[in-house]
Amino acid sequence: QVQLVESGGGLVQPGGSLRLSCTVIGRIFSNNYMGWYRQAPGKERELVAKMHSGGNTNYADSVKGRFTISRESAKNTVTLQMNSLKPEDTAVYYCNTEVRTPGIPTLNYWGPGTQVTVSS
Fold first, then answer.
1. E strands within the chain?
2. What is the Cα–Cα distance from 12 to 21, expressed in whole angstroms?
3. pLDDT for res 75
4. What are phi and psi of 17, to 5 degrees?
5. Is residue 48 within 8 Å of residue 63, measured between CB atoms?
6. Taking Cα atoms as reference points, which of 21, 23, 27, 32 lies closest to residue 2?
7. Could you report the per-residue pLDDT of 60-79, keeping only the tens digit for each?
8. Are the C-beta atoms of residues 8 and 78 closer than 8 Å to each other?
9. Which long-range contacts does 108-111 make (Cβ < 8 Å, 24+ apart)?
10. Rounded CA gap, 50 and 97, in Å?
11. CB-CB contact of 67 with 82 (8 Å)
C-alpha cells in the first residue's frame, strides 16, 4: 500500500515562508513525477508545482519566483519552499505523484492535504 505523508503546513503572516514536504511510503518502482496541487474553498484544484523524473519543473504562473520545488529521489521525498506568501496562497495543499510499475498502468497517489493559511 502506497501512502503519501505530508508535513509543513500552518499559519503564517503575509510575506512569510513555509516549507512543505511529502514522502512516499511503500514499495514503488519509480515516479514519473512528484508535485503539489492546492485547492481553496470554492475554487478549482490547481497545479502549484511539479518535478518530473528528468528534472523538468512546472509552476503555476501565480507562484513563479516565489515557490521552489525540489526532490530527493533516493528518499522519494519532494519539498516545496514557499516564500513571500500572500493571502491568496491560502488553500489545502495536496501532494501528488504518478507511479510507474512494470506490468500495470501508471497510478496516481494523493496525500491527505495540509492546510496553509496566510493571514495577518
1. 3-7, 10-12, 18-25, 30-39, 46-52, 57-59, 67-72, 77-82, 91-100, 107-110, 114-118
2. 16
3. 66
4. -135, 150
5. yes
6. 27
7. 999 999 999 998 866 689 99
8. no
9. 109/2, 109/3, 109/4, 109/24, 110/4, 111/4, 111/5, 111/6, 111/22
10. 9
11. yes
